[in-house]
Amino acid sequence: MQKVKFECEMCDSKAISFMKYCNNEETVAVMNAKSCGQYKKGQSIFYEDNLPLGIYCITRGIVKLTRSNNYGKEQILRFVKEGEFLGYRAVIADEPLTATATCVEDVTACFIPRQVFIDLVQGNGEINKQMFKTLCHDMGLNNEKVQSLAQKSVRERVAETILYLHQTFATKSVEEEPVIPISLPREDLANIVGTATETLIRLLSEFKSDKYIDFEGKRIKILNKAALERISHATV
Q1: Segment 33-71, tens digit of pLDDT
Q2: What single DSSP character describes residue 212?
Q3: Which of 79, 200, 211, 220 could anchor a disulfide with 190, C-beta 3.0 to 4.6 Å?
């Protein structure tokens, strides 16, 4: 990890993260305490079961959160992108980290020490509310994932995953920007879906033959969003 230094006022995440609720005194306190690091693609920022020393705010890049089972197989829980933060649940709960954070691409992240973050949550009502909302949102996503794995077929989950990745990472509407802007290994995609890599590859090939999707290199291009929504039983 390479450490870098820049001011909070220049931080890309300030406009959309909890930092926008800080007053001047709180901003100065964070600015004096935080440190920023640059991480390479494939590098881990922290590991599950370790004690949290603070939280990380992602100012550039994408991070995946994974958890290992008793056999060492990883399960992708979710992705964290620019303007979002990670490690906060373990800090608030005073518990070990439940996931490993690994960079999907080169990442810049700011580290805020545990006590500085706790002081913000305890002393700033708006930040406290935002943390509560974020916790509830993440719990909702986890519940949806459990329900999907339990009730949907693999074909439905593949369509659902393609739509999820586009909704999460595309910056424009599907008509204007149909290509999912990140390139994930097929093993990672299969991990998200909850199926074997061979099954995922076969279904992606079927979707391509049906002209629902196409590929630009390793990136997926959506050709027929409505068809994917029907397959996934999406309500949006």
Answers
A1: 989 899 999 999 999 999 999 999 998 999 999 998 777
A2: S
A3: 200
Residues constituting the chain: 236
- What's the rounded Cα separation, in Å, for the pair 196 and 217? 22
Residue 26, CA distances (Å) to 34, 41, 92, 122, 128 in order: 12, 32, 18, 12, 14
Q: Are 48 and 104 in contact (CB under 8 A)?
A: no
Q: How far apart are the first and last CA of the chain?
A: 40
The position carrying tokens 């995953």 is 161
Amino acid 55 reads I
- Domains of the chain (ranges; CATH) run 2-147 (2.60.120.10), 152-232 (1.10.10.10)
The beta-strand segments (E) located in 41-99 are 44-46, 54-60, 63-68, 74-80, 85-86
C-alpha span between 215 and 180 (Å, rounded): 10
Q: Residue 80: which of 182, 9, 232 has the closest Cα?
A: 182
pLDDT band of 236, cuts 50, 70, 90: very low
Residue 24 has pLDDT above 60, yes or no: yes
